[in-house]
């Protein structure tokens, strides 16, 4: 994919070029939004809003990492959606049992080539990770998602969230510690390589 060619074509009104950019980044955008929002419907709304905003703001792109530029828009869309939901709480549509437990958790990041047992293990581990992410304050959750899930460097994340580099590093350190503490409660789900002395992360 010639990204810069597609961007320039999209700026000239070529909708096919813009749609190819959307297709190239939609999975990344949704996965980032899902990790921040913690709920698939909210992530879908935020992702849709992000791509609408991307179309409207494409002329403001001034070069550099296009991925980072999109991540900034997705992150802002997530914050906007979280603010809307705080003003107007919504009830998730997932079915629940008599104890209020979700009957079937969302299946994301599932390896279609994995066997049944491995799929179950993967789903349980992903649910544990998402549970621990959701327990983080959104500011800490966003930083750890952008660095540890999306793979962005500290300076890029600093630019995305408009915070000093020191703030990014501080939030990331605290987020990782909180995640580690939380995941100790799911020790049996962790792959052996993440355990120390058979007991610790």
Spell out the blueprint of helices and strands.
Layout: H1 3-11, H2 15-37, H3 40-57, H4 66-87, H5 116-134, H6 138-149, H7 154-161, H8 165-183
Helix pairs in contact: 1-2, 2-3, 2-4, 2-6, 3-4, 4-7, 5-8, 6-8, 7-8
Q: Main beta sheet: strand number and arrangement?
A: none
Q: What fraction, in percent, of the residue positions are helical? A: 55-70%
From the helix content, strand content and strand pairing, which structural class follows?
mainly alpha
Radius of gyration using CA atoms only: 19 Å
Highest-level CATH class of the largest domain: Mainly Alpha
Q: Which parts are unreliable, with pLDDT below 50 for 5 consecutive residues or more?
A: 105-111, 193-201
What best-fitting shape do the alpha-carbon axes yield?
Answer: globular
Distance between the terminal alpha carbons, to the nearest Å? Answer: 40 Å
Number of helices: 8
Looking at CATH, the homologous superfamily of the largest domain is RNA polymerase sigma factor, region 2, helix turn helix motif
What is the name of the CATH architecture of the largest domain?
Orthogonal Bundle
What is the helix/strand order? HHHHHHHH
- Number of beta strands: 0
Give the strand content. Answer: under 5%
Average pLDDT, all residues: 80
Counted up, domains total: 2
Looking at CATH, which topology of the largest domain would you report? Rna Polymerase Sigma Factor, Chain: A
Textual characterization of the structure:
The protein is 65% helix and 0% strand. The protein is an all-alpha fold. It folds into two domains: 3-87, Rna Polymerase Sigma Factor, Chain: A; 116-194, Arc Repressor Mutant, subunit A (Orthogonal Bundle), CATH 1.10.10.10. The chain starts with a helix and ends in an 18-residue tail after the last helix. Residues 105-111 and 193-201 have low confidence and may be disordered.
């Amino acid at each position: 994919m010639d990204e810069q060619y597609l961007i320039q074509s999209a700026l000239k009104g070529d909708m096919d070029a813009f749609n190819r950019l959307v297709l190239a980044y939609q999975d990344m955008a949704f996965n980032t939004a899902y990790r921040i929002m913690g709920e698939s419907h909210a992530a879908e709304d935020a992702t849709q809003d992000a791509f609408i905003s991307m179309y409207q703001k494409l002329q403001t792109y001034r070069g550099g990492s296009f991925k980072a530029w999109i991540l900034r828009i997705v992150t802002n869309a997530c914050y906007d959606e979280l603010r809307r939901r705080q003003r107007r709480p919504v009830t998730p549509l997932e079915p629940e049992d008599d104890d209020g437990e979700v009957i079937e958790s969302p299946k994301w990041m599932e390896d279609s080539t994995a066997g049944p047992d491995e799929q179950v293990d993967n789903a349980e581990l992903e649910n544990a990770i998402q549970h621990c992410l959701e327990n983080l304050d959104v500011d800490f959750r966003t930083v750890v998602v952008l660095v540890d899930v999306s793979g962005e460097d500290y300076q890029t994340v600093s630019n995305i969230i408009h915070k000093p580099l020191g703030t990014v590093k501080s939030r990331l350190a605290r987020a990782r510690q909180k995640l580690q503490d939380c995941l100790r409660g799911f020790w049996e789900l962790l792959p052996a390589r993440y355990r120390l002395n058979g007991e610790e992360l």
